[in-house]
Design brief:
Helices cover 24% and strands 36% of the residues. The protein is α/β, with parallel strands linked by helices and 132 residues long. A four-stranded mixed sheet has the order 1-4-3-2, covered by helices on one side. A four-stranded mixed sheet has the order 5-8-7-6.
Length: 132
């Protein structure tokens, strides 16, 4: 098995794609007007418009309803990226050390999903992510 991607469903796909392009520093590949992907060496983030839900089963996904998932992005400089974004996002928490060895900040995307920006900083955390 190969984990292929995580997909988010968006009411406003253009705003969501623009948000993740800014946060991830990459341009999305638009595969259709209702679907885009941001492909990285480690993972792919897929974003579908709410119109795509009808293809699955109407009502099976609901934009903005998620309160269980956190999109985690390992970044080079948590503080610098947070400073760049803080005036245009909802902040969950400012940069701080986490008990598992990462420096992290959390923000929300335009649909309300939490996005964690983190960097491993302790020796154990660096070792853990070095193999991934």
């Amino acid at each position: 098995m190969k984990f292929a991607s995580t997909r988010l469903i968006a009411r406003d796909i253009k705003a969501m794609v623009a948000f993740y392009e800014k946060v991830m520093g990459q341009t999305a590949d638009w595969l259709a007007p209702q679907f885009a992907e941001i492909v990285t060496p480690a993972a792919t983030l897929a974003i579908g418009s709410v119109e795509t839900v009808a293809i699955f089963q109407p009502g099976s996904c609901e934009p903005g309803a998620n309160r269980t998932a956190i999109i985690e992005l390992m970044v080079d400089d948590v503080d610098a990226l947070f400073d760049q974004l803080k005036d245009s996002v909802t902040i969950v928490h400012e940069p701080k050390m986490m008990p598992w060895g990462n420096r992290a900040a959390m923000i929300r995307d335009p649909e309300g999903t939490i996005v964690a920006l983190f960097k491993p900083v302790t020796e154990a955390a660096i070792a853990r992510f070095g193999a991934r």
